[in-house]
Amino acid sequence: MRSVIKYILDPVIKKAFLWYHSKPRKYSYHGITVTVLPEVFPPHFTLSTKILLNFINKLDLIGKTVLELGCGSGIISMFSASKNAHVTASDINKIALRNLKLESKKNNLPIQVIYSDLFDNINQSFFDYIIINPPYYPRSPKNTQEKAWFCGKDFEYFEKLFSQLVSRADHKNAYLILSEDCDFKAINEIAEKNNLQLKCVLEKKVFFEKNYIYSIL
Ligand SMILES: C[S@@+](CC[C@H](N)C(=O)[O-])C[C@H]1O[C@@H](n2cnc3c(N)ncnc32)[C@H](O)[C@@H]1O
């Protein structure tokens, strides 16, 4: 099966994608709209963001603490805030964070926005939910923008993620989405090396791609 991301990497489709993504574009979910800047991960074409949003929609988030680790456009954070969660959104993409601060103000949805390489600057020790839509292509990112897609040629993103998560009291509250197209074996091995287990809690096929949400135990 070819995933949406593989299509985007195809030279012809990549051209069309780059053209579409060269301008700010709106993305909406259940009445919440964000502007997605060209430098920020576009939720429009990939299925993962929407699947996570549908997953979150079923949760009772009133008064719950939510961390969106790697928030990109911040639509998941904004939607969680609209469901009365106390939301923290983090990323290493400063353009994304600056824009999310504006969107949060504009929509009157309070979000704590933090620049952080994974958990490096996250001081809060416990969240009820940690939502992660990770980059998973094993290539070395050339710039911040590419870090939305590429996890490092030796899966450095997952090495650091799992080694940080395992020592957190709330790691069992973390949900990670992966596509059937990723190297699950390699990612799972890194989890297991860190004494963590990936337990599938949702399998969703949209068009031609299966995605899985994992709970990290
Ligand atoms: C696949 S995108 C998901 C964006 C958003 N959560 C969504 O679902 O639409 C991955 C995001 O993780 C961010 N990211 C990549 N490496 C990171 C790191 N080491 N620390 C924090 N964020 C990171 C990227 O900048 C990007 O915004």
Report on the structure:
The protein is an alpha/beta fold. The chain has a single domain, classed as Rossmann fold. Helix content is 31%, strand content 24%. It has seven helices and nine strands, in the order H-H-E-E-H-E-H-E-H-E-E-H-E-H-E-E. The protein has helices at 4-9, 11-20, 48-57, 75-82, 94-106, 156-165, 184-193; strands spanning 25-29, 32-36, 65-69, 86-91, 111-115, 129-132, 174-179, 198-206, 209-216. The strands form two sheets. The chain has a seven-stranded mixed beta sheet with strand order 5-4-3-6-7-9-8. The protein has a two-stranded antiparallel ribbon with strand order 1-2. Helix 3 (48-57) runs parallel beside helix 4. The structure holds S-adenosylmethionine (SAM). The site of S-adenosylmethionine has 23 residues, from helix 3 and strand 4.
Round the Cα radius of gyration to an integer and report it. Answer: 16 Å
Q: Which cofactors or ions or other ligands sit in this model?
A: S-adenosylmethionine
CATH superfamily membership: Vaccinia Virus protein VP39
* The top level CATH class name: Alpha Beta
General shape: globular
Number of domains: 1
Strand content: 15-25%
The major sheet is characterized as: 7 strands, mixed
Compressed to H and E, one letter per element, the order equals: HHEEHEHEHEEHEHEE
Mean pLDDT: 93
Helical percent range? 25-40%
State the end-to-end CA separation.
28 Å
- DSSP summary, beta strand count: 9
Major beta sheet, strand line-up: 5-4-3-6-7-9-8
Give a brief description.
The chain is α/β, with parallel strands linked by helices and 217 residues long.
